[in-house]
Amino acid sequence: MTISNQSNQQKAAKFTVPGMDETFANRAIATLDNRMVALLDLALTLKHVHWNVVGPNFIGVHEMLDPQVEAVRDMTDTIAERIATLGGSPVGTPQSIADRRTWHDYSLGKALVIEHLGALDLVYNGVNSDHRKAIGEMAELDPVSEDMLIGQLTYLEQFQWFIRAHLESSDGDLLTANSQTELAAAKSALS
């Protein structure tokens, strides 16, 4: 049985909420779709790390990640529902998510807690900075979506702070500050 590719592609709005222009709705849907994909990927990455951390502080980090996973999953649901509200069709199938991703897959497998935390700091850098950009876009397009993303970023930044608390020196230096890749951040965190 062959399934049409069209069913796995984001559909533009043919209608939207009263008072919103369809062009603005379509732009908002595209931005929200990008954030939905990023958060779906983040939830899976956090769960992967939850399963693959080892070493000192294992249980604390293992248990710290589950509430983050749940919160990020809730964020994706909220975004998907906003896409539908605006007249779009949220698509969350595995292949469509992989196809729409613009970043590389998480690169660490089983590793020490500190290595994963170093890599996760970089993951959160990307997710959070892209969420900020999306907020800027939504300021012009849709204040309701802008407010939703601001609320989400509040939690995402707090989650990154939880990660960074393990990576910060007593002098306030961040061990991963100059890292450009997850593997480099993992190595820097070991220092």
Automatic annotation (TrEMBL):
Superkingdom per UniProt: Bacteria
InterPro entries listed in its UniProt record: DPS_DNA-bd, DPS_DNA-bd_CS, Ferritin-like, Ferritin-like_SF, Ferritin_DPS_dom
CDD domains tied to this protein: DPS
Domain Ferritin/DPS: 30-168
Gene Ontology MF terms: DNA binding; ferric iron binding; oxidoreductase activity, acting on metal ions
Pfam families tied to this protein: Ferritin
UniProt keyword terms in alphabetical order: DNA-binding
UniProt feature coiled coil, ranges: none
Family to which the UniProt record says this protein belongs: Belongs to the Dps family.
Record protein name field: Starvation-inducible DNA-binding protein
Gene that encodes the chain: dps
